[in-house]
TrEMBL record:
One of its GO terms (molecular function) is acyltransferase activity, transferring groups other than amino-acyl groups. This is Acetyltransferase (GNAT) family protein. The keyword Cytoplasm does not apply. It comes from Kribbella amoyensis. Residues 173-310 form the N-acetyltransferase domain. Keywords: Transferase. PROSITE patterns: GNAT.
Length: 310
């Protein structure tokens, strides 16, 4: 078996494999579009050849503005044997190309709600997660995907918090204070990798690098002037997203997340958002409950396979 990244001349073979979508995020249209935009790249796309024929494919996705991919978007197999060991080799080659200390790699699989009752989905998912685990991405987290559209109605704006802009150091400080004790698995992984301060700085850097406007970020204070939390409305390459919100540990339990989420929704709606996307871990119950209360709709789930903590 020969493993290599792809070249332009492979395109027809890649498209023939991708035509069978299965649980992969890649579609024929997305593949060609992203190859042109730089969100997919030949040097991020790995194939296995047996007897000179391409039998397996792993497509990695990344942001156009970054030099490295972030996550696997699709695994395909056209051989006759067990795909798991071949996919595992492909994933290992892809992950080996990540620079040390870089976030990720991850494997994201988008699934319909209620996927556990869909034998076709489970059958497609299982070997892919086995291959990911064999290549070291053995921790899986399920994230709930939410969306809001203007038809869902604007939530009432907070009457008990006031919102103010602040500089990056102030945001590093609040990120630092909320990520301790976060119920979010990827936050916990970042803390294990680079510590609380490092994780806070990475978050600020990440949100600064996204297309969302830095001027939308707000700190939230109560009537007595106490700092309660913060709201980072944002946008990624796919459109407006909730971004991040956090309530300082000593102020939790008063549903301030609703006030922060309402503010974010207003800021993005004022910018003309026709859809706001958001994800939260299945285990982050208070956040999921807040999305539900503000009429965000859970439309799908995202399974994330990643390296285990530590
Ligand atoms: C998610 C978050 C904003 C919710 O805070 P909140 O508005 O204070 O939550 P609620 O008031 O709705 O809390 C509901 C219950 O969950 C508890 N709770 C809230 N956050 C908790 C946490 N991180 N860990 C444990 N329990 C928590 C509350 O104490 C409350 O318990 P009670 O019903 O016994 O009083 C807050 O947990 C947080 O800042 N987490 C870290 C950042 C994060 O995960 N952001 C979301 C990224 S999308």
């Amino acid at each position: 078996m020969n493993i290599r990244t792809t070249v332009e001349a492979d395109l027809d073979t890649l498209l023939a494999l991708i035509a069978d979508q299965s649980v992969n995020t890649v579609t024929l249209e997305r593949f060609q579009q992203f190859l042109a935009s730089g969100a997919y790249r030949h040097e991020w796309t790995w194939v296995a050849e047996e007897d000179g024929r391409i039998t397996a494919l792993a497509v990695w996705w990344g942001m156009e503005q970054f030099a490295h991919p972030l996550a696997i978007d699709g695994l395909y197999y056209a051989g006759t044997g067990d795909p798991v060991p071949v996919w595992a080799e492909l994933i290992k080659h892809g992950t080996a190309s990540f620079p040390a200390g870089h976030e990720g790699p991850e494997y994201h699989i988008f699934l319909p709600n209620g996927w556990r009752d869909r034998p076709d989905v489970v059958a497609a998912l299982e070997p892919r997660l086995q291959a990911a685990a064999a290549a070291g991405l053995s921790e899986t987290t399920e994230r709930l995907r939410y969306e809001w559209t203007p038809a869902d109605g604007l939530p009432a704006r907070s009457t008990r918090l006031r919102f103010e802009p602040a500089d990056d150091e102030a945001f590093v400080d609040v990120f630092r204070r909320v990520i301790e004790g976060s119920l979010d698995a990827s936050t916990a992984r970042a803390v294990a990798r680079v510590g609380v301060d490092g994780a806070a700085r990475e978050e600020v850097e990440l949100y600064r690098s996204l297309p969302g406007d830095r001027s939308w970020w707000r700190l939230a204070y109560d009537e007595a002037g106490a700092l309660i939390g913060f709201a980072v409305p944002s946008a990624n390459n796919g459109g407006p997203v909730v971004g991040y919100l956090g309530v300082l540990a000593e102020h939790r339990g008063h549903r301030y997340s609703d006030d922060l989420l309402a503010e974010i929704t207003h800021v993005l709606a004022e910018q003309g958002a026709e859809r706001i996307g958001a994800d939260t871990d299945l285990g982050n119950k208070p956040m999921a409950a807040s999305f539900e209360r503000l009429h965000y709709r859970n439309f799908a789930v995202r399974v994330v396979a990643s390296h285990p903590l530590g």
